[in-house]
């Protein structure tokens, strides 16, 4: 079942199926297409949001934590975020 594009703001990069939330999109891409979650700052693709968060903290500590799917920022540079901001980021994506 494919939802009308104008009703779903997020589309799968592989099959173009529409989704209402980023969580639904990320879960679909990972489960249906064995895709990974892309880093917004480099070519790294992580197998989980937890691994992406760790990658961003250690490889891009001075860069803002940003959602690849919608460009939402989560409180500033990775090395300055508190636990609540990281939890918000993880919960936003997957």
Automatic annotation (TrEMBL):
User: Which keywords, in A-to-Z order, does the entry hold?
Assistant: Metal-binding, Zinc, Zinc-finger
C2H2-type domain location, by residue? 10-38
Q: Which InterPro entries match?
A: Znf_C2H2_sf (IPR036236), Znf_C2H2_type (IPR013087)
Which domain of life does this protein belong to? Eukaryota
Q: Which GO terms describe its molecular function?
A: zinc ion binding
Q: Which Gene3D superfamilies match?
A: Classic Zinc Finger
* Entry's transmembrane regions: none
Q: What is this protein called?
A: Zinc finger, C2H2 type
The record lists the organism as Oesophagostomum dentatum
């Amino acid at each position: 079942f494919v939802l009308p594009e104008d009703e779903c703001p997020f589309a799968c990069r592989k099959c173009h199926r529409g989704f209402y939330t980023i969580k639904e999109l990320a879960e679909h891409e990972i489960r249906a297409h064995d895709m990974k979650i892309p880093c917004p700052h480099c070519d790294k693709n992580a197998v989980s949001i937890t691994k992406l968060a760790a990658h961003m903290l250690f490889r891009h500590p001075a860069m803002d934590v940003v959602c690849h799917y919608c460009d939402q920022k989560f409180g500033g540079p990775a090395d300055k975020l508190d636990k609540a901001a990281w939890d918000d980021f993880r919960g936003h994506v997957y």
